[in-house]
Design a protein that fits this description.
5-stranded mixed β-sheet, D-Maltodextrin-Binding Protein, domain 2, elongated, 3 domains, 14 strands, 316 residues, 10 helices, Arc Repressor Mutant, subunit A, alpha/beta
Amino acid sequence: MTVDRLDEMTAFAAVADARSFTQGARRLGVSGAQISKLVARLEDRLGARLLNRTTRDVSLTDTGRAYLERAKALLEDFTALEASIRDQEGPSGSLKISAPVSFGERQLQAALLEFAALYPAVGLEVSFTDRMVNLVDEGMDVAVRIGRLTDSSLIARKLAAVRMVTCASPDYLAKHGEPKTPYELGLHETIIDLNLRDPFQWDFGQATACVYVRVDGRLRFSSPDACVSAGRAGLGIVRTPAFVAADDLKAGRLVPLLCGYEPAVIHVHAVYPHARHLAAKVRAFVDFLAQRFAGEPEWHQGWTLEHRSQRAQAST
């Protein structure tokens, strides 16, 4: 296969997957004019129309659909062949990673530096964002995600558990009292994390004992760190992932609440697209994270209800 033909096939597959010349060009890092030229040249050479074009959409013709199926298989084989040769020397190349802001800055940064030191032939391009990134469209190799996964087209590897913690500052509890059941939250000021799946409905308990409580509050942030800061300042009750509040919980600046009603844990996952040949750099990174976060997470240690009782006894 010549380079020209490979470029044409790659351009066509990108446009067909994205159903857009603009998005296809962005995925490949080329101009819209260039990708249009490549697809047109492919159709001319084959003597067949592969794509139907309108001002709003791009769709496959029957011929294009049949050609795309075979073209994808050939492109995957070619990519796997090149990767297998590169990987003989070990993990190398640029690794593009997406991770949520709070977890990335609090937990992942140190791990990334350790990985970079272990694999000097691998370059890291890391995007910390709370936006749900489309790995394929945006050319990402792997993403770190927290919570329930919805994209079944990705491979997921579980890395660590995360407890969702309800907590407040000692000052807040001294002034307003401590809720003994989830239903008493309606009598309290709650701080809303807009990043949660349903910010205004907090779940408590597990399985058949699960209950849901509607909450509201005047302080609403699309940042768990901002929510924890507001809770630490005595402005209300917070629901947050444990890794965000762990330092404050250990130091007693925040107090865990409703521990007997704690919801089921969520999980941190590494996710990456399906591929016939998983690049060595991706495999090495996912294996590294799995080993790095194995066992009971450090963000769950040192602030349990038992530790809280010990602190209370020590202060009396």
